[in-house]
Amino acid sequence: MCTGEPGLGGWPQPRCTSRTGGTSTAYRSQPVVEDVAAPARYVHCTFTEVPPGSVSVAGEPVEGPRMVGLIHDGRSPEVRARLLHGIADAWCAVTGDAKSDGAIFLHEVPRANVLEDGEILPEAADDPVAAHA
């Protein structure tokens, strides 16, 4: 289950890391794109399970999920903040995890640095599909 908040341009390439047998396993079959404003063909989701103790913060093991999302560049700080909180809230609503147990990192990628379906993505101003961004 990796989602974005409607109307925010979605979360086109999330990577979700959680402990083996954790909550992500049970929710993978849910539609990944149900809450994402981006066209479904732009949404790629990867789940990685790691053994307990494989993820640490300040040298201490943590159990909560870690998510890294690649998004197209150009979103305002307010939109990025709403996207981060929307993703966390959606995850917690489905899994029951506490928001404070996880971490989410967004990385902006220039559209010119993305090749999908054999095509380099056009800049948002030149892409009619990017109206959601």
UniProtKB/TrEMBL annotation:
SUPFAM superfamilies: Tautomerase/MIF. Residues 1-10 have a biased composition (Gly residues). InterPro entries: Tautomerase/MIF_sf. Gene3D superfamilies: Macrophage Migration Inhibitory Factor. Residues 15-27 have a biased composition (Polar residues). Residues 1-27 are annotated as: Disordered. This is Phenylpyruvate tautomerase PptA (4-oxalocrotonate tautomerase family).
